[in-house]
Every structure is written in C-alpha cells, then in structure tokens.
Amino acid sequence: MKKRYIITTAYIFFLMLPIYWLVSMSFKTTGEILGGFSLFPQEFTLENYRTIFTDPTWYWGYFNSIFYVTLNTVISVSVALPAAYAFSRYRFLGDKQLFFWLLTNRMAPAAVFALPFFQLYSAVGLFDTHLGVALAHALFNVPLAVWILEGFMSGVPKELDETAYVDGYSFPRFFTTIFLPTIKSGVGVTAFFCFMFSWVELLLAKTLTAVDAKPIAAIMTKTASSAGYELGLLAAAGTLTIIPGAIVIYFVRNNIAKGFAMGRV
Amino acid sequence: MKTQNNRAWLFVLPVLLLVAFNALIPMMTVVNYSVQETFGNNLFFWQGLDWFEGLLRSDRFHAALGRQFLFTGLILAIEVPLGIAIALAMPRQGGWVSVCLVLMALPMLIPWNVVGAMWNIFTLPDIGLLGYFINHVLNIPYDMTQNPIAAWVTIVTMDVWHWTSLVVLLSYAGLVSIPDAYYQAAKIDGASNWAVFRYIQLPKMKNVLTIAILLRFMDSFNIFTEPFVLTGGGPGNSTTLLSIDLVKIALGQFDLGPAAAMSLIYFVITLLVSWLFYTLMTKDDLN
C-alpha cells in the first residue's frame, strides 16, 4: 500500500519541479538569477510582476489571449452542439466520411497551415484581429468539440428524446430545456478542452497577429529577445499564464478524465 | 438504433462551413504552391511533381523524418508504460484524488512556448535547477546547447513531463469504471496481481489506451513549439523534427514549393494514422 503513495507522490513532485523553478525565478532579481545558483529567492522581489502590471504591452497581451480564447470557446461549442446531436442521433448521407474528415483536421500539423492561414486571413481582413485567431483555432477545436460532445450525447438514451416529443415538446424547446441540462457536464468539459487547446496553441496565434491581438505568450518571446535576457520578467509572465488554466481545471476536475477519453470510457 | 434522416445535414452545416473555410482554402493554396516555382514578385512557374520527387530523395527530409519517428517512438515507449503504472498506483477514492488529478493535468494547461521557456531556464547549466544538479551535484557534464545527446534527453524528458498525465488520466478513467465485484471474484479465485492486471484491468483499459496512444502519436508527430523554443532544432540539426524543418523551409527560407510539397507528404502520413484511429474507434462503437 505504501509503495503506491510513493509512486504517485514522486510523479507529482517531478511535475512540480520545473513549475516551482519558474515561480521561484519570477521572484528573483535579474542580478540574482545571473549571479549564480540559489534554491530560494534571496532578495525576494515583486518588481517583475510590477513591470508586467504597469506596462500596457504586457497586460494587453493577457487580455488579448483571454479574449480570443473565450471567443473561440463560444464559437466552437455553439456550432458543435447541433452537429454532435446529428451525429449521435441520425444516420445521414456521408455521415461517416464527414466525421472522419472532421477528425483529420484535429490531427493536421499546425505548421502546415501557418503560411496559408497568414495569406487567407490577410486577404479577408481578419489578420491581427481577435476574431481571426478565434476562427483559426476553430480548425482543431470544432472537430474536437463535436467529437467530445458526440461521445457524451451518445450516452443519453434515445428514449429521452422520444418521450419529450410524445409530450409535445418542439425540437428547440426539448434541446434547450431538457437535453442541454442532461449533458451539462459534457458541455462544461468540452468548453474546458476548447479553452485549453486555444490557450496553449501559439504557432497559429503568433502567425496571425502583429500588434492588436498579440497573445501574451508571443509577447514573452519577443521581449525575451529584444530586451536582453530578462529571465525574471520572462518567468513572471510565464507564471501568470499558468493561472487561468489552473482556475478552469478546478471546475471540471471530476470530469476531466472522461473528457480526454472523448466521453468514451 | 439511429434513424435515417438527411435533414441532419442542416445541423452539421455550420460546422461544415467553418471547418471548410479553415481547411479547404489553405489546403488548395498548399497544393497550388507544391506544383510551382516562384522567384518572388508573384511570378509562378509550373513545376509539376519535381518538388515531391526531390523531397522524397533528399537526405535532409529523410533525416528529419527519421528524427521524428525516433522522437515519437521514444516518448510512446516511456509515456505509455509509465502512465499505466502511475494510474494503477493512484488512490481510487478520497479527497486526494481530485488534488492529484488537478496537479497532474496542470502541465497540459501551460502554453506550449512557456513549457519550452520553462524547461530552458530549468536546464541552464549553471543557474537552472536541473542543470545545476546534474553538473555540480552529480558531476556529469550537461549542456544541451552543445551536446546533441543532452538535447535529446531534455526534449524527451520535457515531453514526458508535459504529456504522461494524459495517459494517466485516461488509464485512470478506465480503471475506476471497473466494478468492485470483478476484484472480489478475482480474490476468491486467488488470482495474482499480475493476473488481475492482465485479465481484468488491461482489457478494461483497452479502449482508453487506444485513444491515449493514438493521440500521443499524432500530437507528438506534429510537435513544434516546445522543442523549437527549447533547442531551436539544435545543436546543429540534431533536434530538428519534421514541423521545425517545415517551418524553417517555409517561413525561414521562404521556399514555398518544397515547403508545400513537404506539407502534403506530412499530411498524408497524418491522414493514414487518423484513418487507423478512426477504424479502431468505430469498431469499438459497433461492439
């Protein structure tokens, strides 16, 4: 029994080490970081965080990221809901092929799309807009959302739909007042995954933005190269990018494993 | 049983339009580039299949593809058994389960370039925690900007750190779905731990493990940001994986033709694996 706890604890310890180092570095001065090795911050400072919270380029990066990620989550979940319902309840011409085609877009390497996306979004005037990034991320998030939601919806017996129709419910009323509440944990998990993959993706977000919609993580790389090697500042910005993820994960903690299994445990 | 209804297409239409806009137009652009040569100024010349032929014979492409398969093979060989072992060791109930799950999922929620930057400062030879420990406590010379083997160990360790939890979470979800009665029956039969694993736990995890392995295969096959931030593909070309090479050719050298041809070959490989994935998944749905 004891061996079990050692394995779990050791693994979590291993996971926390690099995170600890990032957080600890964010409270150090650049002088201390470059001066040599220290396990804990010797001259504890909040200067790095102060720089970020007072400089608009920095904090706007956060707003930009949160803005397009939220937009993407809303778009992805709302278009995926009816589609997932169709896949889980009906057979229709070309359904299997369509589902497979959607799936391939979840698997497509982002690097393949970087350049054509840049040209496409410039041509339609969505370059450097939040909507542009949100739509681009829909490439992999919409298929994912359809997939997870379909898994959850297939777990709901069809008798629920039929009973509702017998009781005289119209489809929209059934869908919003009966069906959605039934699968609300599925919707929550799907929203979480859309949020997560849009939040962590950077290649497309960076390619599609210049100034106005630039994500925080891209500002980090830019600052890292232009303002010399300010590791403390970089660490503070990195630490702040972990927080939104940590918050949203708390809400879905009980369903997260099922979400990763696309509702197919 | 599902009912036949072609009006279901209406439900799928928004998804179809959105994904088609994102997938078909760029894909046509790529196909267009892959058969042409450009010298700038928007002048294009028909090139036929030359780029594809050249690419399939080029040592650089073979090397990048080889490194990609090595990377994907290594991380699968480590993450899958490790993930299963940790899932088996995790407590099944109690307040700690949620804490464990949240902590384990945390690395997956960090932006990918922050993951790269984090591992960079973690492994700096003299001032990073790991770098300092290996160099000055274990006294093993370690500098991933100089030594290809050190760079490989670092990117593989980083990926294990980043994604093993995915395998853990999925295996765990499979394990908790096993009814207690199965274990009691095994106990009465006097089954060994190994027999319980082999005949009860593993079959129950088969479904989720398939998903885990294929997701890890495909995501690691597409990996770009983390190793790019960490090593930039170096030292030399030693950690230049497929996506890194592709971005170097497309955005670095602006060789659109070869980059487009490479994208398509890359995409076909991913397509084959997706098909395998899909077949396995739908087979399970039928049972």
What would you say this structure looks like, in words?
The complex is a heterodimer of chains A (265) and B (287). Chain A has 14 helices and one strand; from the N terminus they run ααααβαααααααααα. By secondary structure, chain A is mainly alpha-helical. The longest helix of chain A is centred in the first third of the chain and has 34 residues, at 56-89. The radius of gyration of chain A is 22 Å and the shape is globular. The model of chain A has no long low-confidence stretch (mean pLDDT 84). By secondary structure, chain B is mainly alpha-helical. Chain B has helices at residues 8-34, 50-57, 59-89, 96-105, 112-123, 129-137, 148-176, 180-188, 193-221, 225-231, 242-252, 256-286, and strands at 3-4, 36-38, 44-46. Chain B has a two-stranded antiparallel sheet. The radius of gyration of chain B is 23 Å and the shape is globular. At the A-B interface, helix 1, helix 4, strand 1, helix 5 and helix 6 of A face strand 1, helix 1, helix 3, helix 4 and helix 5 of B. Strand 1 (90-91) of chain A pairs parallel with strand 1 (3-4) of chain B, so a sheet runs across the interface.
SSE layout and pairing:
The complex is a heterodimer of chains A (265) and B (287).
Chain A: H1 2-26, H2 30-35, H3 47-54, H4 56-89, E1 90-91, H5 95-107, H6 110-123, H7 130-154, H8 159-166, H9 171-182, H10 184-200, H11 203-207, H12 216-226, H13 231-251, H14 256-260
Chain B: E1 3-4, H1 8-34, E2 36-38, E3 44-46, H2 50-57, H3 59-89, H4 96-105, H5 112-123, H6 129-137, H7 148-176, H8 180-188, H9 193-221, H10 225-231, H11 242-252, H12 256-286
Antiparallel strand pairs in B: 2-3
In short:
The complex is a heterodimer of chains A (265) and B (287). Chain A is mainly α and 265 residues long. Chain A has helices at 2-26, 30-35, 47-54, 56-89, 95-107, 110-123, 130-154, 159-166, 171-182, 184-200, 203-207, 216-226, 231-251, 256-260; one strand spanning 90-91.
Features of this protein?
heterodimer, A: 265 residues, mainly alpha, MetI-like fold, 2 domains, 14 helices, 77% helix, B: 287 residues, 3 strands, globular
